Amino acid sequence: MITVHHLENSRSQRVLWLLEELGLDYTVKRYARDRETMLAPPALRAIHPLGKSPVITDGDIVVAESGAIVEYLTARCGGALVPAPGTEAHRRYIYWLHYAEGSAMPPLLLKLVFSRLAPGSPTLVRPLARGIAKAVTAKFVDPELRRHAAYWEEELSARPWFCGADFTAADIQMSFPLEAFAARGTGAGAELTGWLARIHARPAYKRALERGGPYAYA
Q: Is the pTM of this model over 0.90?
């Protein structure tokens, strides 16, 4: 039996969604974030040394990292939700599978970090921290997010899904950064808004929300 070690409001929500799309049986073990730091609890370190989510266990096998989990689970189902190798759709699939964490998430994480810099600073240095956070966000983070958002708009204007005409596991992988961007980015365009509506309408997505509990970005 597959167990998803599921941290609230995290990337692990898309693992639940993938499992629902694949029709695999699984159980969910929920973890709450620390209310002050918003970090994962120490209990996750018993599953994986880094104490991060998502992580799944499948018998004695432990798989961490979203992309690795996607590859493991789709391979377990004979390549379901993966375009045929050697096709343009497959080349796009490999790209978006890695782009989601390698390129899309870093500026979103920076925006989150800088939004918490001043509130988490000592009172005496808080004005300085607020000024630094505002300057870095305005001059670097937000322009970078707008660049990525324009890229998504262009790509999705040419096709309904990131790999082409068909929904794939790459769309699941892309869901967290795009949902996070819609929640705290620089403004979702029409194509991104439409794509989000399509994924949110999928029955498997809705079932995953029921299994996972509250999720801030849906």
A: yes
